[in-house]
Amino acid sequence: MKDFVYHKADNLPEAVALNAAYPDYPPLAGGTDLIVQWRSGIRKLDGVVDISCVDELKRIYDEKKEIEIGACATHSDIIGNAAVKKHLPLLVQACMSIGATQIQNRGTIGGNIMNASPAGDALPVLLIYDAEMLLQNVKGERWVPVRDFFKSYRETALESGELLAKIRFPKRDFFDYRGAYYKIGTRRAQAISKVSMCVMASVSHGAIKDIMISLGSMAPVPVRARGTEALLKGKVIDDNLIHTAERSLADEFNPIDDVRSTAQYRSYVCGALIVKFLRESRIKK
Amino acid sequence: MTKVVKKVQLNGVEKMVEASPESRLLDVIRLELNLTGTKEGCGEGECGACSILINDTLINSCLVLFGQLNDGDKILTVEGLGDAKHLTSLQECFITEGGTQCGMCTPGMLIAAHALLIKNPKPTREEIAEALAGNLCRCTGYKKIIDSVEKAAKIMRGES
């Protein structure tokens, strides 16, 4: 048997260089997905590039116009950060829905992104906040907007030799918006989601000025529900519209049956979630 | 694989530990250090039986590789709480309140509860349940575990 190869990066340039030099050895951060996949035999692993101790990758920067989160910031780091709480409250909610304390203390936002599961809990939130990913290789770096990042089932725009270093979120004024993050799973802690939804809307005098809806586990990649959004924009929220929204969202995607849920249930429950959101928005104004 | 050496604070005592970097910390604790209080349940971060603290942070030791440790890291396992002659209030209350039955989840429960009480000496029952959400017990139904932690917190605050 070949020896397991363990490379440990002490700083960011080293992490980028090791990652480029050993494309067959994935970056190891929190390990909450990678180690499970390796130990269970789902993923063969001959080595890793350990980036979990790289300080530059763990920091969260509160800049003037944006918030930058290092790929190795843990879910707990994100939950406990005041700037994130203020500007990206739905990201905090999503991170709180991941696993339980032990997993939140270890799992990272970069890992959630690079695992690229359609059920990744933070991913619908990235779509709503227009996140951008900073990909670095030995030659340089590039920013990729989230809408171009998730290509197909577990496929991302990351190329061999590139490392996800940071996630950047523009600070936008969501002053008159109401947002919600919903995760439907077997139990609140630990369970992998059957469906997740992130939604944000601006409602004035009972009418929807703007609405953004994104969904996890409804398609091979996290998706915006553009069709339903267009249908709702500019309309007054009444029973009729709520019913239309429910049907539209249930019909907009073709989810699959898998071990966690069925296509039918997924469509039904995402319809039910938009009903819940719109009803609450109507009351709150 | 070439073994590596890490200098850690293990339950308050400085120790040089040698192991392969790809070994799970859980295996190093149980097999190399012979601290068998830390249990393996699921081996995939679901059950919390292998919970320990690294630098006061609660983690599952089945999901940490030995190579990920840094020199100087503080590790606390259940053996670092109290021994049979000097039980901590938490351990005492798990006995008096019936918070333990088969015992498999107990070390993880104790460590997770300990981590909670470091940060929050006066938790509500909901906060206790939340803090223990990553620890599964198949015997007690959790009520008595939550009772145990609640009682221990009271004693530690000097209220009982």
Describe the structure.
The complex is a heterodimer of chains A (285) and B (160). With 285 residues, chain A is α+β, with helices and mostly antiparallel strands. In chain A, a hairpin with a 6-residue loop joins strand 13 (207-216) and strand 14 (223-224). Chain A contains 11 helices and 14 strands. In chain A, helix 9 packs antiparallel against helix 10 (239-252) and helix 10 (239-252) runs antiparallel to helix 11. The N and C termini of chain A lie far apart (65 Å). Chain B has 160 residues and is an alpha+beta fold. In chain B, 32% of the residues lie in helices and 16% in strands. In chain B, strand 3 (51-54) and strand 4 form a beta hairpin. The longest helix of chain B has 14 residues, at 106-119. Chain B is globular and about 50 Å long. The chains are: A alpha+beta (285), B alpha+beta (160). The interface between A and B is medium-sized, with 28 and 29 residues.
